[in-house]
Amino acid sequence: MKRIVLILSFFILHLSLCIAQSWTMVITMADGTTQELPTADIAQISYVARTATLEDKNVDQILIKEVYCGGVMLDDGSRNFQADKCIILYNNCGQQAVVNNLCFGFSTPYNAQGQNHNYADDGTLIYEREGFLPALEGIWYYPQSLVIEPYSQVVVNVHGAIDNTQTVSQSVNYANADYYCMYDPESEYKNTNYYPTPADVIPTSHYLKAFRYGLSNAWALSVSSPALFIFQTQGAAPDVYASGADNQWYDGGNNHQESGHCIKVPADWIIDGVEVFSTAKPDDCRKRLTADIDAGYVWLTNQQGHSLYRNVDKEMTEELPENQGKLIYNYALGAGESTDPSGIDAEASIRNGAHIVYQDTNNSTADFHERQKCSLRD
What pTM was estimated for this model as a whole? Predict the structure, then answer.
């Protein structure tokens, strides 16, 4: 059988002559999937540069649903394993959400209990009056439009986009074709302890891009108490904005101290944020996110496999007519005294076909609780 192979930008066309002298075009996509088309059905082939993006839609309905960053202990209990973090985003409405230039950042200092040099004499954060949040060290971003279906989630692996349960049984398996991951060795975030080659099932189109302006070789999202936020750049691509001379800022006003290198993220660009305090250092924690982004905080006990999970909006969830008979109650996965006051088991209800509306008051004290395990392990 005679075969002609043509390499065309993002995919390969294989033309093969069949026994009946008809031709079949086999299209092999970048993610390895294939599609066969009889050439008799093809009227014309054209190639269009895919530079256009989808239009933003319901961006304000995209929430941080869950943060898993504290890790677990090894099976033998000898030490902790904390290179398996993830962030789960959620579309909190009944219409499709579309967002362009979506970015992830965290504020300074790394830990809530760390020395914070950004408070003025009047007790306010010095960047609050200027209307921005500092994003320390680097940002991660989606290089294309992100589409989230109604009442659906998107899992974003931060570190260790593999099946970690193969070595640590209480960790998380990220070998899932639907998941996204922060993986971009060209950005200098290439510490293989945190960035092993992602599982083969995760398509390369699900790799996020990074822009590093700090010194670390891994994006150092705190394992005890991050101040995490998501935002959308306006008028410039994320990497272009992050490289702009006027957008640089240094922790505590120490100009050009690279260990404290940040960029300024305008407050009105920020979509959602969550402030985390460490139960190990309760008296030393201070807020880093401004009150307009998050007026409160949620406690985390790390190294126990716990996550931070958003509470259900009980009234709005129960009002959805499609949830009749599908909601599961008697939620029992809160950690210690921290729990979801709605009493609704969100993950069990979702598996039962329900749609969940999560609470969003811009106050993590009311909106989040500490959960015994990451929901991906349910």
Answer: 0.86
DSSP H/E element including 299: strand 298-300
SS3 55: coil
CA-CA-CA-CA torsion for 319, 322, 324, 328, nearest 10 degrees? -90
Strand order through the sheet with 102-106: 298-300, 270-278, 227-232, 102-106, 138-141, 207-212, 180-182, 153-157, 86-91, 62-68, 307-310, 368-371
Q: Which two tokens stand for residue 205?
A: 């189109």
Largest CA distance in the chain: 84
User: Quick one: pLDDT at residue 27?
Assistant: 58
Q: Which H helix or E strand runs over 238? A: helix 238-243
Task: State the total domains in the chain.
Answer: 2
Contact criterion met (CB below 8 Å) for 370 and 302? no
Q: 75 and 221: one domain?
A: yes
Residues 6+ positions from 275 with CB-CB distance below 8 Å: 112, 227, 287, 288, 289, 294, 296, 297, 298, 364
263 and 182 in a single domain? The answer is yes
Q: Identify the domain containing residue 370 by its residue range.
A: 59-311+358-377
Considering Cα of 64, then 66, then 72, then 75, what sign does the dihedral take? negative
Nearest to 285 by CA among 127, 111, 133: 111
Dihedral sign for Cα atoms in the order 7, 12, 15, 16: positive
> For 180-234, what is each residue's pLDDT tens digit?
999 999 999 999 999 999 999 999 999 999 999 999 999 999 999 999 999 999 9
Radius of gyration of the chain (CA): 23
Please give the Cα distance from 323 to 84 (Å, whole number). Answer: 33
Give me 290's structure tokens: 């401004």
Mean pLDDT of the chain: 90
CB crowding 157-196: b at 16 or more within 10 Å, else e: bbbbbbebeeebebbbebbbeebbbbbbeebbbeeeebbe
The mean pLDDT of 321-337, rounded to a whole number, is 98
